[in-house]
Amino acid sequence: MSIYLQKALMITLVGVVLVFVGILLLWGVMEALVRLTSSQKKQDKEPEQEDESAIPAPQQAAAAAVAAALLLSKDRITLPQLESSALSPWQSAHRGQQHSTRK
What we know:
Strand content: under 5%
Shape: flat
Order of helices and strands: HHH
Radius of gyration: 32 Å
Helix content: 55-70%
């Protein structure tokens, strides 16, 4: 190898090492700041609270039964199909633009 290539590789290696040392140093400083400035003290036990918005098991079972019955029923509800000529492509494009500009 030429001497210039060896010097270039050595400079690159030193740069990579310095970057990782800097990242680790910043990580350590941030960790120290978090530990020093945190106002909450760690507790040995974790209080477990039930989610008040959770649905009780009997209601979940009823909802699952209704969903299964609707899925298995032969009388499925179908929405009426709009005619394809109800809106022209020009009208569809402009209505889409109107909806996006209203927000």
